[in-house]
Design goal:
By secondary structure, the protein is an alpha/beta fold. It has three helices and eight strands, in the order E-H-E-H-E-E-E-H-E-E-E. It is 18% helix and 29% strand.
Amino acid sequence: MVLTVSVTCHERAIAMTFNVQGVHHFGITVRDMKRSFDWYTKMFGLQPGPVNHGVGKELSDAVQVEGTELSFSMIDIGGTRIEFLEYHNPRGKDFDLKNGDVGATHICLQIDDMDVAYSTLLERGAVFNAPPVTLTDGELAGSRWAYLRDPDGIQLEIWASPK
């Protein structure tokens, strides 16, 4: 598969009164945190931190979900954290967004060797959308990527930069 990439940049100076220092974490809601942690550990060797619990009006107001009771924990990947949230109450609907749906997202993990990662993940039971794609044009030429899904259907990408 050949993929062509074009880039458009927008420049506009905006006076800021605060500084964005980086990304602390991004969160995903899962059906069963233990199942998710078992899968992420099996597939990528990632280890979760302690599990925390939240309940109460302040939390419900902040997340705009009435009667929220949830558990949450983070996995650190090279200084960026993925927060896993499991809502015990109310139970949300299963994830069903497609790539073209507004709000759909994916997590991209930088890897060192696409061929080894792809074959290892297949052996461990990963289900990929398609075999790895190699970019052939532009600044990213030679980069390779492939999409797979976790047990909740949340899309992940593995990405290998050219060697």
